[in-house]
Every structure is written in C-alpha cells, then in structure tokens.
Design brief:
heterodimer; A: 670 residues; mainly alpha; two-stranded antiparallel sheet; 24 helices; B: mainly alpha; two-stranded parallel sheet; globular
C-alpha cells in the first residue's frame, strides 16, 4: 500500500518538474514548486518511516513500463525504506528552505524544473528492483543534478566543474552498467530477485565488488574518485548543494550496500580489506583537504568526502565481520554506519543551508571575506555552531553517537582470524580517530573565521539575518541533530529492521528497554553511553557554576577595547585568516600529503614593494591519476584525428576490418 | 532501593566536590615543588585558591565586540571538564555516574571543552587569539588520536571501554607485565603533558612569548570568566593524574558500596598518588626545556605511534 502512495508522490514530483519547465519565470511558481516538493517529501518520509518502524513486510510492484515484456520492477524493503527516510528528510528541508532562498535566484528557470526531477530520480533509485530501473533512475539523478550544478553557468569555474562532473558521472554509470551485466550473467536475469538467487562465482563476485566501488564510489566521492565532488557541489545553489552532499552521496552509499551486501552473494574476507583501505584513505585525505580550504562551501564538500570515508570504513568492518560469521559485531558496525548516514545527512544539510544563508546575506563564499557574522546573523550562527559541533563528533550530539558505535565495533575485531585484517583494522581505527580530531580543527576554523572575530569586508559588516523559511529549516535540522544525539537508542532501534536485513537477521539488543535510556551496543559490561545523563549533568554543572559565581561573587561587566597584550590592532586584516589558521596543520601533514611548499619573496632593503608569501599545494591525486589520463586521451585524440577526413571507401574498409576482427575473436573464444 | 540510590548519589556528589576542592591544591603543590627545585622559596601551596577567589570577585572586562559565545564558553568548558572528572575513578570505582559514559566519551568531553575554548579565542578577532586557537587544534589533532589509541589498548585488555571496569581489571592479579601496557603508559603521559599545556609542549607560567598556546587563547578573558577557565585547567590536571593513577597504579581504590572506611582509605591513597604525581611532573618539567612549536607534533607523533604499536601488539598476540 505504502509503495503505491510513495509512487504517487514521485509522480507528483515529476509532474511538478514538467509544469515548472513552462512557467518557471512566473513569480508564484517558486513557492508552489518548493511547497509541493516539501509536501511530497514529507509524505514519502512519513510513509517510509511507517514502513521501517511498523514492521510491515516487503512490498513489490511490477509496472508495465520501460523495456517491453520485462516491465519495471519496484520494491520497498527495510533498506530502501531507511534510505528513503534519509533522502526525503533532506529533501523536505531543502525544499522548505528553497521557498525563501529561491527568491535570490537570478535564473529560476534553470533550477525549478530540475529540482523536483532530481528528488524524484533519487527516490526512484531507492525503489528500483531491476537493473534497468536502477540505472535509468541513477542516470536521471546524475543528469538532473548536473543541470542544477550548471544553474549559474556564467560564473567562473562553473563550466569546468560541470564538465568534470559529467565525465565522472558517465564513468560511474558505465562501471555500474558493467557491474549489473556481470551480476545478471549470460542469461540476462536483470531483476534483482534473479540476481539474488544466483550466487556468482568468486572471480565474478570480486569484479562486481571492484566495479561497484568504482561506480557507486565515484558518485559518493571515494578517494581517488572524489575530484568532481568539491568542484560540483559548491557550484550549485546552496539548497541543491545540501541535497547533493547530504543526500545524493547517500543514494550512492545505498547503491554500494545494495550491490555488495544484497546482490553480490557471500563476501570473501579480503573484500573488506579493500573497502577498509579505501575508506581510511578517504576519511583522512578528505578532512586534510577540507582543513586547507578557504571557500566555505568547498570546505563542506571536502568534509563530505571525509564522512563518506567514515561510512565506508563502517561498511568494511561489517563486511569483515559478516565474512567470518560474526553477526552481532556485523550488526553493530552496520548500525554505526547507517546511523552515520542519517547523521551526515542531517548536519551536512544544515551546514550547507547555513553557508547558503551566509552567501545570500553577504554574497560571499570565501571565508577570508567574512567574519563577525555571529553578531549580525544570530540564528544562522547558533544553528551553524550546533552543526559544527555535531560533525566534529562532540558529545552529546549525534556525530559522537555514531562514531562511538564505530569505535565499539572496532574493539570486536581482534577476534577476526585473518592476519591481514588484524594488521589493517587497528590502522583503520587510527585513521578514524585522526579524521575525527582533524574534523574538529576544520570546523573550529569554519565557524571561527566565518562567524567570529571582526568583519573583514563591508559586505560582512552589513549582513542581515535571512528570512523565516531559511531560519526555521536550520533550527529544525539543528534540533534533529540534538535529538538524535541525546536519544541515540531510539535511532538504533529504528535501524534494527534494516540491520537485520543486511546482517542475516542479527540484531542489537532493544535500546528502548535499557535503564536510563542508555546506549548499550552489546552488553553493559563492554561499554555504555548515556547522552541524556551527560547532557543533563553538563547543563546542571554549567548553570550551577554560573549561578554560584553570579550570586556569591561578582556579576559586574565592563566593556572595553580588546586587550590584545596592550597592542590593539586597528585593521581587521590583522586577524587570523583561513590560510593562517590552517598553517600549523599544513606544516605537520601538508608537506607529506600535498607536497606543500612555501616561498617567501622579501623585497630588498629600501624597496617599497610588498613582501609576498606564496603557498603551493599540489593535488597528488589529480597530478598522478587524472592528469596522465587526460594527456593520454589528448595524445590519442591527436593521433586519430586524421580519421575524421577519410573517404567513404576507407570508412567501409574500416568497418569491414573491425567486423572481421570481432568475428575472429568470437570464433576463438573458448 | 531509593535509599541505596540516594547513598550512591551522595558518594558521587562527594567525589565531584572533593575533586573540585582539591584541584587548585595540586596546582599549588606542583608550583611549590618546581620552585623548590629551582631553589626559590615559591608561593604557598594555597596560592591558587587565593588567585581564584581574587579573580572571581573582580568585575569581568569584556572586549567591545565580544559575543554571547565568549561569555558562555567559560561555563561550558568548566562544565564539560568537571563532568569528565566525575567519570574518572578517583578514590573508588563504579560510582553512580561512571556508567553513563566510558573512556571514549571522556576523551570526547575534553574535546568539547577544547573546541569551545578555541572558538572563544577567535571571538574577539585578535591575532593572539587566532594563534592560540590554531596551535591548540594542531596539537589536539595529533594528541586526540594518540589518546584514542591508548583507550583502545586498555579496552582490549580489559574487554570494556568503561574506565571503572578497566581499573578493576588492572587491580586483578592476572594482568602481569605487558609490553603493550608500558607503551600505552608512555603514550598516555605524553598526551597528558600536551593536553595540560605543560613543559615541554606549552608553558603555563609564561605570557607574551611567541611559543604560547593556551595562554594566547584565553588572553582576552578576565575576572570570573578567567577564573572558570583556570579552574577548569586545574580540574583537567587532576583528571589526567587520576586517570593515569587509576589505570597504572590502581592499588587502594575502593569498590562502590564498600562503605565509609574503604572510601576513606581510597581518598588517602588517592591523595598520596596525586602528590607523588605532582612531584614527578615538577621534576620532569624542571629537567626539560620548552620545545619549538613545530617540534611538538613529532613529540606527539611518537605518542600516536606508541599507542598504535601497543594496540597492534594486542591484536597480533595473546601473550604480550
């Protein structure tokens, strides 16, 4: 039943996109489109949540659409329901925000038709139950988001970002196409049920894993396939950036889980080691890139890369435990992973919406042109601060809860029999801890440079708070971050059906039955965490201290110029900037990872020329992976260029030659 | 049942008060020993109390552009560190609050305090504040993973991340000498030195020096706000000393519910350990020189590697 209702909502989304294409320039369209999207997403959210928590059985549907005689297979199970909750929560937030934020759009006809289609395509990916629907919706999602990235196509760098994104999206879909081709086997069983019932050979399974990592990983932003993400995500309008970073990467994670955990058959133990290594690198490199940025939205995009790394580490742990039959730790790792999926959707949407608020209030994305916004935009600042604290894994917020569960899962890993994993998992744990600590540094920088200090430009000094739609969206998301952090047990309970589906029925103990609402992953003796108590203790002790001091000592306050060791600085340019804040971390990690080099150009004595400090960061991945491919392509293209100008005889000869070669190939094929 | 709970709550609140009362004393003790080692007479060991009292009574001078965050942070930092200190077994294990959070949460609570203190350093928009904040986060970005590695090592040995369980396991007879434990101890001591801003990482007694970290962050604070931050720093020193003591010299710790006599014995042995730790810290601090800031990551990197090695040894062997 709920499957039909969800499908109805998706049809509404598609229809809204179609209508918006014709009337996008009319001013009431904006409110109607975003309002409809909000309602549709909220409805799907409610239906999916009811499916997840209501214990309803899996429902399937075959529509007479698409390929003749095959039709379109749709299916709603616990896994797709969970991701549908995440996607539509983010979608509803972005739509509601869009009602207010869309006012600043210079070209609404470039956003309004594609926004609903993008949402519909993501929902369709989650519902797909055969390879055709999956790939079609996946490609639809890519193209719709590409169109949204290109919305401000006249700004510098936008065309480049769109181009790289399109290339990577095409590559990813190609990998997934081959992946499903292998899974379907020679008989072409493209319906997921047929794939599930046919266990692939070990070699095929391994190739499927690699192709799934390439296809879904490139969409999610796994290093080294992440290059498009920090280019494309910031270029879109901010509520679309929130969708792309907070939600679309989760659809990619869904694709990875669906293929690796559900379709590819029983995993071999070494699969997990590939996944763990990729995840560890992604987490550490992503956050190191993020610390170095001075564009607020690009910093957030790189931080998405980091969080995808954390999620993939969790998946790797779950794979390792499942391959060795340790189902309870596998369930724990999966709970941590899915919890982090939800958390990242919440706080990354919140942060991107906050960055959008800053951008619409000041016209700036560069942190070095901002500062002091906490005094001009109090609501945005407070919610952004909560988002920063949550993503830095600080208790008692939600980021810490999922990170804590992941650490608990790591502590089960000495029981794994394979030596490779025994050596790999401690290092992965170190990578996880390192990325968490660096994330805190990154978000101290993001909040500190943007919102604290003194305004660096006139635009920042004159910023005004954004409208009520934007404010309430951010408040709601921040409240959800607190709620999920304080009551993590409820989230873990809600995840139980999905976890059971993926971990062959294993479940964690029911958290709602724990005394004092504690989070107890396996048993209280191994470790427990009670965020409610922690939050109430902190609140009580903080207020107690403030009360005692104000009541019994002094409450006098005097405002005076800043002390600054007796040398007050006149210009706001004396403040630490994004670059100077990152300098210590750049010196510690950057020389190794980015080949960072600083050159100081001092003028000779007497010269009035300013001194210059030049910092060069090299993107190793781009230089060693992408640049060679690009130059190879251009070399080959130059070589074969003359083939454009052949006579018709030569073309026919070529076609004939290729045909003979192919037939010969088939003839000698074993 | 209710009476039992009230008794447990009373013991826990007593522990929190005791930690609060004794925190400045440890600071005064360390300063006194250091002064003696330098052949100065040094201030009385009660001096930190007088300093705090003086600061609390003064009016707070705020910079003209200080935001609400700047005024809230001292209390947030104080609350986070006080709660973290309440979770560490000082004189007894298994107190009421100790089950609400484990070692990972203690590390993260200290991270919360650091996060907000670094933000407060950037609030006024002076270069000193930014300098302190950026260096503090750089140090933390290596120290925190090192600490997590130590936590992992201890939890793998004890089969639990709860600090009380770890302390109880370490009190037992069948722990023995392990290479992992020795490595973890060294790593933990290095992290403790860095987190408390002691020599050779930072110098708590200096101002106006290009190498300062913590002091640069809190430069704009005065009056009661400064008092709360100094108090929190003193609490943090007690927290780390108690943490090292309860894991590596757990003798004399009372178990929950053993009664007043056991608790009194626990308090006695805890204070002895605190004083011994203070002496060791003072001796160490007087015998080394302050490092350049960019030597610090190497120092802490050693802790991270030792922690990782300790954990790896536990993964690959049962006997070490």
């Amino acid at each position: 039943m709920s499957l039909h209702a969800i499908l109805g909502c998706i049809v509404v989304q598609l229809g809204a996109g179609l209508i918006a294409a014709f009337v996008a320039r009319q001013s009431p369209t904006r409110g109607v489109v975003y309002g409809t999207m909000f309602a549709a997403c909220a409805a799907i959210f409610g239906l999916a949540l009811a499916t997840l928590t209501g214990g309803r059985p899996t429902s399937t549907l075959v529509l007479p659409l698409g390929i003749p005689w095959i039709g379109a297979h749709l299916r709603l199970d616990a896994l797709s329901a969970f991701f549908m909750v995440v996607v539509n929560l983010g979608g509803a937030a972005a739509s509601f925000y869009g009602i207010g934020y869309g006012r600043h759009e210079s070209a609404p006809q470039r956003v309004l038709p594609f926004f609903p289609v993008f949402l519909a395509a993501m929902n369709m990916v989650l519902l797909a139950d055969d390879a055709f629907v999956f790939l079609f919706s996946w490609e639809f999602m890519s193209l719709a988001s590409w169109a949204l990235v290109m919305a401000n196509h006249r700004s510098a760098g936008n065309a480049h970002a769109g181009y790289v994104y399109l290339m990577m999206a095409g590559f990813g879909t190609l990998a997934l196409l081959l992946c499903f081709g292998l899974l379907a086997g020679p008989d072409g069983g493209y319906v997921f049920d047929e794939i599930r019932s046919a266990a692939p050979a070990p070699l095929i399974g391994a190739t499927v894993l690699v192709l799934a990592l390439l296809g879904a990983g490139s969409k999610a932003g796994l290093v080294p396939l992440h290059v498009w993400l920090p280019l494309a995500h910031p270029e879109a309008p901010s509520h679309v950036s929130a969708l792309m970073s907070g939600v679309m990467t989760k659809v990619a994670i869904y694709g990875l889980i669906r293929i690796v955990f559900d379709l590819a058959g029983p995993p071999a133990w070494w699969w997990s080691s590939v996944v763990l290594i990729l995840g560890g690198w992604t987490a550490v490199l992503g956050v190191l890139y993020a610390v170095m940025q001075h564009d607020l939205k690009r910093l957030l995009a790189y931080s998405t890369v980091e969080n995808i790394g954390i999620i993939v580490i969790g998946l790797g742990l779950a794979l390792a435990f499942r391959a060795d039959g340790m189902l309870v730790p596998a369930a724990l790792a999966l709970s941590a992973t899915l919890f982090h999926v939800l958390n990242h959707a919440l706080f990354k949407s919140l942060l991107f919406l906050g960055a959008g608020a800053v951008q619409s209030a000041t016209g700036e994305r560069d942190m070095d042109h901002l500062g002091g916004l906490i005094r001009r935009m109090p609501t945005t600042a407070a919610t952004f601060l909560l988002g920063c604290a949550a993503i830095s894994a600080l208790p008692p917020l939600n980021g810490f809860a999922s990170e804590w569960l992941a650490f608990q899962a790591i502590l089960f890993s000495p029981a794994l029999p394979q030596w490779g994993l025994k050596l790999l998992i401690p290092s992965t744990g170190a990578a996880l801890a390192l990325s968490a600590a660096l994330a805190a540094a990154c978000f101290v920088k993001a909040f500190g440079i943007t919102f604290l200090g003194r305004a660096r430009t006139a635009a920042a000094a004159a910023a005004v708070e954004v409208d009520a739609y934007c404010r309430w969206t951010m408040i709601l998301l921040a409240a959800l971050c607190v709620l999920a952090g304080v009551l993590p047990g409820l989230v873990v309970d809600a995840l139980a059906p999905t976890v059971a589906l993926l971990a062959s029925g294993a479940q964690l103990p029911v958290q709602a039955s724990m005394p004092w609402l504690s989070l107890v992953p396996v048993e209280a003796q191994r470790g427990s965490y009670n965020a409610v108590l922690l939050l109430s203790f902190m609140t009580m002790t903080g207020f107690l201290a403030a009360f005692v001091v104000h009541r019994f000592a002094s409450r006098a306050v005097r405002r005076a110029p800043a002390w600054d060791c007796g040398f007050p600085e006149t210009s706001p340019a004396f403040q630490y900037t994004a670059g100077s804040f990152a300098q210590p971390i750049r010196r510690v990690f950057g020389t190794l990872v980015f080949r960072a080099a600083e050159t100081v150009d001092m003028p000779e004595p007497g010269s009035l020329r300013p001194a210059r400090l030049t910092i060069r960061l090299r993107d190793v991945v781009w230089e060693y992976v992408y640049a060679p491919i690009a130059s190879l392509v251009s070399v080959v293209a130059n070589r074969v260029d003359h083939m454009q100008f052949l006579t018709i005889r030569s073309y026919l000869g070529l076609v004939f030659g290729v045909l003979v070669a192919l037939l010969a190939g088939i003839a000698v094929w074993p | 049942m209710i009476g039992d709970l009230a008794a447990q709550l009373g013991v826990q609140l007593g522990q929190m008060t005791l930690v609060l009362i004794l925190a400045p004393l440890l600071l005064g003790w360390v300063r006194r020993i250091k002064a003696r080692l330098l052949r100065r007479r040094g201030p009385s060991i009660w001096q930190p109390y007088r300093d705090l009292l003086r600061l609390i009574r003064k009016e707070a001078v705020l910079a003209e552009n200080a935001s609400w965050l700047f005024r809230a942070v001292p209390y947030i930092v104080f609350a986070a560190i006080w709660v973290a200190a309440a979770l560490v077994p000082t004189f007894a294990t298994g107190l009421l609050f100790s089950w609400s959070a484990d070692m990972i949460a203690i590390v993260a609570l200290l991270g919360t305090a650091r996060f907000f203190l670094a933000l407060a350093g950037m609030d006024i928009g002076t270069s000193f504040g930014g300098l302190g904040a950026s260096r503090e986060m750089m140090i933390a970005s290596v120290a925190e993973p090192a600490m997590i590695m130590v936590v992992f090592t201890l939890s793998l040995l004890a089969g639990s991340t709860q600090l009380s369980s770890v302390a109880e396991v370490m009190q037992g007879a069948n722990v023995g000498l392990r290479v992992s434990l020795a490595l973890a101890l060294v790593a933990l001591v290095i992290v403790a030195i860095a987190e408390n801003g002691r020599i050779p990482v930072d110098n708590p007694a200096t101002h106006l020096e290009l190498t300062m970290v913590h002091e640069a962050m809190v430069l704009e604070y005065s009056g009661r706000h400064l008092a709360m931050i100094e108090f929190a720093a003193a609490l943090k020193l007690v927290l780390y000393t108690s943490l090292i003591a309860c894991v590596f010299v757990p003798w004399g710790l009372a178990a929950a519910g053993e009664g007043a006599v056991a608790y009194l014995g626990g308090i006695g042995s805890w204070m002895l350990k605190m004083f011994a730790g203070g002496v060791l810290l003072a001796v160490f601090e007087t015998s080394v020189a302050k490092m350049r800031v960019f030597r610090v990551p190497e120092f802490l990197g050693a802790a991270l590697m030792l922690g990782l090695l300790a954990m790896l040894l536990l993964f690959v062997s049962r006997g070490l």
